[in-house]
Amino acid sequence: MKLPSAFVAGLIFGLGLILSGMTDPSKVIAFLDLAGVWDPSLAFVMGGAITVASIGFYFASKRSRAVLGDPMRLPTATRIDRRLVLGSLAFGVGWGLAGYCPGPVVASLLSGRSEPLIFFVAMLAGMALYEFQTRLSEKPQ
Q1: Cys staple from 39: which of 17, 30, 49, 62, with CB 3.0 to 4.6 Å?
Q2: 66 and 74 in contact (C-beta within 8 Å)?
Q3: In sequence order, which ranges of 62-81 are alpha helices (DSSP H)?
Q4: Is residue 87 within 8 Å of residue 101, measured between CB atoms?
């Protein structure tokens, strides 16, 4: 039941990204271009997503188990630290330069264009580099 549920959730998420224009890098860059010809339409997409997620998190916080039976694992971090700020900056710069972020780039892989593939490979390389660096710093001396 978990795999079909994950597939359906991913399919709905991907279709939502495509329909909202989040997979179009030029639309995303126009949204981020506050000094140029700003396109505010993605603010409505984000507002809707934040609203739906907030409702979901509210109900999830009241439960000890997920609908499919797994234990709930909600975020517990509340501190703004160096890693959060640097990660946010890296994410924002990548999003601003390329017009992609992780969800939309996965949905864009089937478009056949090379740009999403290049971004996706670079994203995986960055994730692997982070894991490698984290494991090195956690090794006992």
Answers
A1: 30
A2: no
A3: none
A4: no
Distances (CA, A) of 97 to 35, 80, 100, 114, 115: 15, 25, 8, 16, 12
pLDDT per residue over 63-115, tens digit each?
A: 999 888 889 888 888 899 998 899 899 888 888 888 888 889 998 998 889 99
Q: Taking the CA atoms of the chain, what radius of gyration do you get in angstroms?
A: 18
Going by C-beta distance under 8 Å and a sequence separation of 6 or more, which residues neighbour residue 59?
none
The DSSP element (H or E) to which 96 belongs, if any, is: helix 82-98
pLDDT value at 32 more than 90: no
